[in-house]
Description:
The protein is an alpha/beta fold. Helix content is 40%, strand content 14%. It has a 7-stranded mixed beta sheet, with helices on both faces. Helix 4 (77-85) links the parallel strand 1 and strand 2. The radius of gyration is 20 Å and the shape is globular.
Amino acid sequence: AETERRIREQLPALTPISDGVSAAVARQYNENPYPRWRHGDYFGAQVPLPEYLHGLGVPTDHLAGANILIAGAGTGKQVMRVARQIRAARIVAVDLSAASLAFAKRQTDRAGFTGIQYGIADILRLSEASDLQNRFDMIECSGVLHHTGDPALGLANLAGCLKRGGIMHLDLYSRHARAAVYDARALITARGDAPTPEGIRAFRAHIIAMRLGQIPARPAAELLLARDFFSLSGCRDLAFNVQELTYDAAEIGALIRGAGLNLLGFRFEENASGQAFAQKYAARFPQDQYVRDIDSIAAFEQENPSAFLSMYHFFVQKP
């Protein structure tokens, strides 16, 4: 705790945080940094950035500089994965939450990745950080834009930080796949559960009672199957988030076009379930090799609502 306090005091503020939603989100993750973790989730060989980005159907050799922005870095688990996976990566990691970044820096320093630059920043004001403009070969922004007050502005600002030809990896919530969370949020509002340890525990007890058949079940009971349900910070992120937006495929297509970016393709989860959906999609739409056609993706999700249960994972490029 003392180490993180010292780190927090030394973090540079790259932009102000003035937007009301951004301030509320920063407060949430300062109170409950998420996730708390001990070890990263990648232990394979490092590869150059162009190889990391293979399979997107576009040339990537021009991205060998490996300048990477991780926007919404949180507690640094993604930072650690990128540092371990991409050879000679030069990483800048930003987030609204100083507490989360302090945890991230302590973890990555301990692992020997001491060259990572951390800073407090609001994606909605990144255009004001002149030294970040047109700088990055790749941007990673996972599960972040849907917690902002203006995702379109946020994506436009991120696009401004990319070099021409740079690639961005984005993850956003699917409306089709979040039915249980929608129901949970409605239940929390109806019950008046506060985002405090006591309120979160009361909500979890109610969900457990549903699963045990002690009270009538509803879609929110499915949250008991989520790993995040079982920690206070995880459950707050999962069901009590102060800001959560969801999308369908058509809305994501419009968001990408609005930012002047080109869709390179969607990717399914890197697990057995995701592989099964990838094979199913390839059989259903063999002409869409890179999973780029928004109409096909929308039709597939209508037929397979859990195809993007975690999030939509997709890549875009700045022309």
